[in-house]
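Thread: quick sanity check before group meeting

JM: Hey all, I'm pulling together slides for Thursday and realized we never actually wrote out the predicted structure for the chain we discussed last week. Dropping the sequence here so it's in one place. If anyone has concerns about the input, flag it before I start.
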Amino acid sequence: MTETAATFKAKSSIRSADLDHRQKINFNIGKYNSVVPIGKQQFIDINLVKERAKNIKWRALETLDQHLEEFEMHFTARGGKVLWAENSQEALDEILSICKEKNCRTIVKSKSMVTEEIHLNDFLQKNNIESVETDLGEYIQQLDGEPPYHIVTPAMHKSKEDVAKLFADKLGTPGHLSPEELTLVARKKLREKYIKAEIGITGANFVISDIGGIALTENEGNARLSTAWPKTHIVIVGIEKMIPSVTDLALLWPLLATYGTGQKVTVYSSIISGPRQPGETDGPDDMYVIFLDNNRSNILADARQRESLYCIRCGACLNVCPVYKNIGGHSYGTTYSGPIGSVITPHLREFDQYKHLSYASSLCGACSEVCPVKINLHELLLENRNESVVEGMTPFSEKMAWKIWKIASLKRGMMNMGNGNLKTKIVSRLFKSWDKYHAPLEFSKKTFNQMWKEQRDLK
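JM (edit): ok, ran it. Output follows.
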């Protein structure tokens, strides 16, 4: 067992037994489940909408090279700069180079899973640059020294009492503040940072090739402030976020809002297509877009796994997953958790180190059913499992156990032998770790075949 798999099992065992955690998650996801059906009412035919959304992402990825070039042409024509990063280190080096050029000491950053993927905050801190999360949930997590718990709701696992205590410990506020009062405290702290920051960093919900712009959608306005106040705006985004046309947003923005938060549309939606132009009164002097590959092109090259790049990061598959709801986001030990994280992480990182995530699934198919772009997530999990076997990543003991099982299962006489305690002992020895994570095995004293014959009085 790899170190990451052992850590995953240890964290999962602890978290799944934490009833307080389960209550908080069920409460928060319950609120989500109550509003999503309301958001869906804006669509006359939700299945048709999902099919069209999938087709948009299919078209974008099948001709991704053309769309990336088209975006660069339009974006640079308005004075923007496009940078290309093959891996995390190249992206970090580009950002540090810009920071040095701008004599930057403070950065304000809106919520971005890609910046979590490359561990941007830790990198900037090591280089004596302050990076402040401006999304309230991310700000809470940064104060607590934790990564995001959820793709959309970073602090989903915390109650309002937890946040009040955290603010009291870290910011010296009274320990009994209400959610509204806590929000005002964060607002005051962050407003000072917006004015002070030399650079604002955001991700992008979508990258639009035909106009050379990025699309941001949010509920707090922090992304707008992060792009408007600082003199320099850096966008770091995965290459898979591309869509062909600005008209596609008419479908994708409401769909993301509905499946992400249950809204018809989020409060603030912005399209940014470059730095401040002549005659404009606001906006940054310089704007950079850093396209991150980080093994995404490997997924793109895999015809079976390519559709995992359709993901619009709504988080719906996490909210419906019975495994995620029991073990929590941090147990995965990855940037992207839940079903979509279990699919893409082995390909984005070392496959043999993270293949265990694809086995941490009930394969119930709820994630595939709920996905707004119709990604067959449970089938892709099976593909990952198959790949791990084909590539010889299963241990010798597991191979032998299944070989013996295959031989026995094909012979009725062997299946009927040693029922009860003997069969229990044999199988328990083959699967030594079973009792550690499951209820003890206990085979019936008679097989169904034997009971059937006795019932029917057959010889």
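AS: nice. The domain at 54-294 is CATH 3.40.50.10420 (Rossmann fold). The mean pLDDT is 93.
JM: adding both to the slides.
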